[in-house]
Amino acid sequence: MRKSRFTSEQILQALHQAEAGTPVVEICRKMPVTETTFYRWKKQYTGLDVSELKELRQLRD
């Protein structure tokens, strides 16, 4: 599988911006990703915090 150009922290930051009310189109334009990619991230990372994500990554390794 291909590695993402964005770190998990960057993805979570984008998702938090969307929750705060920033339009998805604007976020996608700033991060050069498609809306499809953004919604795939949202489906995968919903409900995770940075600390939980780091813990999950540790368990995988």
Give a written overview of the molecule.
The chain is globular and about 35 Å long. It is 69% helix and 0% strand. With 61 residues, the chain is mainly α. The chain has one domain. It starts with 7 loop residues before the first helix and ends with a helix. The chain has four helices and no strands. The mean pLDDT is 86.
N-to-C SSE string, H for helix and E for strand: HHHH
**Measured on Cα atoms, how large is the radius of gyration?**
12 Å
What fraction of the residues are assigned to beta strands by DSSP?
under 5%
Instruction: Please count the beta strands (DSSP E, at least 2 residues each).
Output: 0
Domain module count: 1
Average pLDDT confidence is: 86
Helix content: 55-70%
Major sheet: size, sense and barrel closure?
Answer: none
Give the count of helical stretches: 4
Based on helices, strands and strand pairing, what is the structural class? mainly alpha
Unreliable stretches (pLDDT < 50, length at least 5) are none
Shape: globular
N- to C-terminal distance: 16 Å
